[in-house]
Amino acid sequence: MFTRSRRNLAYWFALSMGGILVLFAGVSYYLSVEGQLQAFDQALYKKSKAIASGATIRLHRGQWQIEPEEAPWLGSDRLSRSSDLVYVRWYNAKGYLVRFIGLPAPIRLTAVPEFQTIAIAGSQGGEPSSQWLRQITLPLLQNQQLVGYLQVAEPLTPLRESLDRVRLYLALGVPVTLGIIGITGWFLGGIAMQPTRRAYDQLQRFTADASHELRAPLAAVLSNAQVGLMSPEDSAQQHLRLEKIVETAKSMSALISNLLFLSRREGALALESLKPVDLVALLRSLIHDQTAQATTQGLTFTSQLPEQAVTLNADPDLLKQAVTNLLSNAFKYTPSGGNVQLRLSTTSRHAIIQVEDNGIGIPAADLPHIFERFYRVDTARSRQTGGFGLGLAIAQQIITAHRGRITATSTVEKGSTFQIELPLKG
Ligand code: ADP
């Protein structure tokens, strides 16, 4: 499932990026053709202007006559080797050929005065081939009067070669870049899938753990009920079995409530469900409820609360539940004769609640995991005390929903301190 999603992500990434790349390559090629042709035309224009300015134009019997320059580089009937030109042609104002150098010329001027790309037939290595030329036809003016035309042509070979090179680079570069884009897409797809994968794994682990936790008590209920039905026992035995069933069903009910709590109360709390709460009063009532439990377990339970009220916006029932979970853990994991202390203090912006015990403590390796759902340091001991490994996960979820923070420090055999940090009412 994840591989398919990752492949899809990589595919769409490569497709969109590839599309942009091909478009970009096409536009670059077009701009390169435009730019090079413009430079080529400019050079050709300059050359033809130089030739035009070298010609002598004079009036002879009422007609303008053009006498081309007898420059050595032009030659008399052939273009010199150093010249790139294929032909130079002069026409009079009526469009009749006056003179040409290079390739033979038509008697009448056919082209309009502008740049043109034309193909001429030739042969290369005995094979017939065509050569592409760029031709310019320039009107010759004397005193603002048209006296003739100059036509010059140059092969497009260097331009074609340069464009062939650009095409080759693009033909090699585009597939290579597409390959890199594909690999990057696959890699990014992996990164993008990570949170989903983690959430999915967590959910799967949670479901497996929850089912596992429910299976054991359910089996106990079933076996007790089946044995009770099978053998005709005395009423005392029957009573014992029924008591066991009730006890197990209660524990299952508690587990289900915890699971429901965790699944329903995900995320931050809605502002309208919060109300101003005096933390001192809330903790005082909690101490009152819990003292009996501590005494039964032979523990000394003390508290340190400020005199004045500490107000914050909270859901009082949820806050009570979070602190109760910390206190009942402290009672559970502190042997008889130990001490448990509940403290409340404030900083400029936060209320700090601390639950400290001198109990069995938590090994350093387990400390980073204790807030995970179903995590228990000592499974046997925890189960014995009726724990599912959900108490701290619930406390953390409640505190996070109040935009607070819960942390723990502990030393094995010395004790643990759990700290809740909550933002004060602004
Ligand atoms: P449980 O219901 O098993 O107590 P919790 O989520 O409340 O589950 O706690 C997770 C684990 O953290 C417990 O199983 C226990 O091993 C450890 N733990 C929590 N609080 C204390 C504490 N005050 N002292 C020692 N160990 C603790």
UniProtKB/TrEMBL annotation:
Keyword Kinase on entry: yes
Query: Per UniProt, what is one GO molecular function of this protein?
Result: ATP binding
Domain Histidine kinase intervals: 209-426
Catalytic class of the enzyme = transferase
| Coiled-coil residues | none
Keyword field: ATP-binding, Kinase, Membrane, Nucleotide-binding, Phosphoprotein, Transferase, Transmembrane, Transmembrane helix, Two-component regulatory system
Q: Which Pfam families match?
A: HATPase_c, HisKA
Write the signal peptide boundaries: none
Matching SUPFAM superfamilies, A to Z?
A: ATPase domain of HSP90 chaperone/DNA topoisomerase II/histidine kinase (SSF55874), Homodimeric domain of signal transducing histidine kinase (SSF47384)
- Transmembrane segments annotated in the record for this chain: 9-31, 168-188
Reaction catalysed by this chain? ATP + protein L-histidine = ADP + protein N-phospho-L-histidine
The record, for PROSITE patterns, names: HIS_KIN
What top-level branch of life does the organism fall under? Bacteria
- What is the protein name for this chain? histidine kinase
